[in-house]
Specification:
It holds the Pfam family Arylsulfotran_2. InterPro entries: Arylsulfate_ST, ASST-like. It comes from Friedmanniomyces simplex. The structure is a single chain. With 672 residues, this protein is of the alpha+beta class. The protein has a domain of 112 residues: Immunoglobulin-like (Sandwich), CATH 2.60.40.10. It has a 5-stranded antiparallel β-sheet with strand order 3-27-26-25-24, with no helix packed on it. A 5-stranded mixed β-sheet has the order 19-23-22-21-20, with no helix packed on it. A hairpin with a 5-residue loop joins strand 34 and strand 35. It is elongated, with a radius of gyration of 34 Å. Bound molecules: 2-acetamido-2-deoxy-beta-D-glucopyranose (4 copies). One 2-acetamido-2-deoxy-beta-D-glucopyranose binds next to strand 14.
């Protein structure tokens, strides 16, 4: 019966010294690179969407971001903004990741349409930074009707912006202007004669109620009041025959003809607009007062003469057209000398070169394009170039279709020129047949150096970050490459922004069942550098001076990724309550940065049990050796005790201190 007591004594005295943790550095150092590329993740061994889960946030998952290539220049203090969604993702939503692919913030907004988010950005409105993204009904596939949400730095929804005049906001664009207005796209079912594109059979119920299109509009609305400032309807200005998209069995009220497919709107300092329409292979510059078209680049109404062997015009099914200032790339690009009467501008866009598995137009891969356009300044009405007569129906499939298209649409008026400045191409020449984005990355200070360029590949779960000269720096997969072109994991756009998030809900904590590991995370908190584990004997929740004094610091560790592991040191002793405090860069406590209190329960404070449990947490050969030695010596002590007992019994002789068995225990103490 002495055996268990002796064992406990032995554990309590021997093990702590042999097992004192000597590996703190292993979990306090910061990463210097993301984990190496994992070919098995990428070939689908672990599903299309291998995720990481967290003890402190059971409802959150983040992708096992898989970098084929990584460069320290991607660690620029900015975060990636993605909206993972698709067949493979049960809890889609907006997500922020750091330059190593570690989760910073994610949230699934449950709505009856599945909660897929689109177009997640940081934008400035009235001097404040907001997170903006779209949520709504996207079951129509390819566009949607819903609202744009604006969240403040504590992740509270503070504005919900819809379209004016009874419309609902499409998912493609929400751009806040310096004037406090927002640009939005809209899709509306509108009657138009489409009998040039197909015949309808009155006897066929599928053809019931023919001659409808998806009309594309964009609006400028006042964010504060919701009032309409400007509205533009595609079919008022663009010929339906400009489309390259097949009508298929569509064109009815039930299945309207999606002929234009607007997907981006930009506004310049002149008050004019630049829009991208995927199904006309064109971007169009629009007078901000009259709505008249100033010029069109690409497609059947193209005005521009291609000076780059077709590479200025051969984009197809593109997304995300933007003006960028002429001095964006001070080293790589020099604008031509100014010419009176002419304007030169830079435009970026994501050239998909494909549409929903249709590859007959464009190159064999998607890319980001930086184009230089020159055109007459004074002109603000219809373009000087004649419309191309290259108006084929959509069932074309000749292999040279793309070359024929370029030859047919090439401009004839030398006043309008387009030149390819740079093409940004993924090293694996990935082709994404829907969605996608191209962003010129913001840079600190800005002075002198060329900015990086980020491509989001939309339908396919990757983004690629480039140096300005087109060399890829970081190439990240957030789903298996075997999912490409399947739609299992997609993000409409991918951006990078600076962001400071300061949630007002407390950090989340969890303790392992063996009472050895404490986990802490704080969804969306960007300013935490360190965590401090505190302990207390009393359950006081820490409010008020006396409560604060009850808490003692136990250990401070560096924040590590989304969720930080803190190993409970042995000397925490009998403190039953624990909590974790968030510290910022200067060592100051962050607002709201006190976790809930962990109650370890009565038993867990029993020291030897805790120590025994801790012995299994990190097994090294040395430790195994020490434990074995320690156990052996413990066994030896027991054996020796038992041997002596036996020899005492056999001897029955006097003088032994253990004669209490004979009822003479009073001799035990004080025996000389
Ligand atoms: C996936 O990659 C892993 C690691 O390279 C390899 O062992 C495995 O055979 C691959 N599986 C398939 C289906 O290609
Ligand atoms: C964000 O908005 C919520 C709700 O209006 C407000 O309670 C909170 O204080 C705001 N956060 C910040 C940082 O302004
Ligand atoms: C509002 O919508 C109606 C119907 O779609 C349209 O006739 C009207 O012109 C719109 N109003 C404005 C100001 O655009
Ligand atoms: C477009 O037309 C111009 C002027 O004729 C010519 O120099 C250029 O090579 C043409 N580009 C293509 C891609 O055909």
């Amino acid at each position: 019966m002495n055996t268990p007591l002796l064992l406990l004594w032995h554990l309590a005295t021997c093990l702590p010294t042999t097992l004192a943790h000597d590996s703190d550095t292993a979990y306090t150092s910061s990463p210097t690179a993301p984990p190496p590329y994992n070919a098995a993740y990428d070939n689908g061994t672990f599903s299309y969407y291998p995720v990481r889960s967290y003890a402190t946030a059971e409802d959150l998952h983040s992708p096992q971001t898989n970098f084929l290539q990584w460069d320290a220049r991607c660690d620029d203090g900015l975060y990636y903004f993605v909206t993972p969604r698709g067949w493979g993702i049960p809890d889609p939503g907006p997500m922020i990741l750091d330059s190593y692919g570690e989760l910073v913030w994610a949230k699934h907004f449950d709505n009856k349409f599945g909660g897929q988010a689109y177009d997640f950005m940081v934008q400035t409105y009235q001097g404040q930074e907001y997170l903006t993204f779209w949520l709504g009904d996207d079951r129509v596939r390819g566009h949607g009707s819903g609202f744009y949400y604006m969240l403040n730095s504590s992740y509270d929804i503070v504005h919900r912006v819809g379209a004016a005049n009874g419309s609902s906001a499409d998912l493609h664009e929400f751009l806040i202007t310096p004037q406090g207005t927002a640009l939005l796209t809209m899709y509306q079912i509108t009657p138009r004669d489409v009998t040039d594109f197909r015949q309808f059979d009155p006897a066929n119920p599928e053809d019931h109620n023919p001659n409808f299109i998806w009309e594309c509009l964009f609006q400028e609305v006042d964010v504060a009041t919701g009032e309409l400032v400007f509205e533009w309807r595609a079919s008022d200005h663009v010929d339906l025959h400009d489309t390259y998209h097949g009508i298929g069995p569509g064109g009815t009220e039930h299945d309207p003809f999606d002929w234009f497919h607007i997907n981006s709107v930009d506004k310049d300092e002149l008050g004019n607009f630049l829009i991208s329409a995927r199904y006309t292979h064109s971007i169009t510059y629009i007078d901000g007062k009259t709505g008249d078209i100033i010029w069109t680049l690409g497609g059947r109404s193209n005005a521009f003469m291609d000076l780059s062997d077709g590479f200025g015009l051969n984009f197809a099914w593109q997304h995300d057209a933007r003006f960028v200032p002429l001095d964006t790339f001070p080293n790589m690009y020099r604008a031509p000398p100014e010419r009176a009467g002419y304007t030169t501008r830079l435009v970026t866009l994501f050239d998909n070169a494909a549409e929903d598995q249709h590859y007959e137009y464009g190159l064999t891969y998607s890319r980001g394009l930086l184009l230089e356009l020159t055109y007459p300044t004074t002109l603000n009405t219809a373009p000087a170039a004649a419309r191309s007569e290259h108006r084929k129906r959509q069932d074309d499939s000749e292999p040279d279709l793309n070359a024929a298209k370029i030859a047919a649409i090439n401009g004839t008026n030398p006043d309008y020129t387009v030149r390819l400045v740079k093409s940004y191409e993924n090293p694996n020449l990935v082709r994404s047949s829907s969605q996608g984005s191209m962003q010129i990355l913001p840079q600190d200070g800005g002075g002198g150096s060329d900015p990086k360029v980020l491509l989001g590949y939309g339908l396919n779960a990757l983004w690629t970050e480039f140096a300005a000269d087109g060399s890829p720096l970081c190439d990240a997969h957030y789903g298996a490459a075997t999912s490409w072109e399947r739609g299992d994991i997609q993000s409409y756009r991918v951006y990078k922004f600076a962001w400071r998030g300061a949630p007002q809900s407390p950090p989340s904590v969890d303790i392992s069942d063996d009472d050895v590991e404490v986990y802490v995370s704080w969804n969306g908190a960007t300013e935490v550098t360190d965590w401090v584990l505190q302990c207390s004997e009393s359950a006081d929740d820490g409010e008020g001076r006396e409560g604060e004094q009850a808490w003692a610091d136990v250990v401070r560790v560096k924040k590590q990724g989304f969720e930080t592991l803190i190993l409970l040191p042995e000397d925490i002793g009998e403190s039953r309550y624990l909590r974790v405090i968030a510290l910022g860069a200067t060592g100051r406590r962050l607002d709201a940065g006190v976790s809930e209190t962990i109650d370890r329960g009565l038993m867990s404070t029993f020291y030897p049990l805790r120590v025994a449990a801790s012995s299994v947490r990190q097994i090294t050969p040395f430790r195994v050796f020490m434990v074995v030695v320690s156990m052996l010596s413990g066994g030896l002590i027991l054996y020796e005790g038992y041997r002596r007992y036996l020899s005492w019994r056999s001897g029955r002789g006097g003088g032994s201190p253990l004669r209490w068995r004979q009822g003479k225990a009073y001799r035990l103490l004080g025996e000389a």
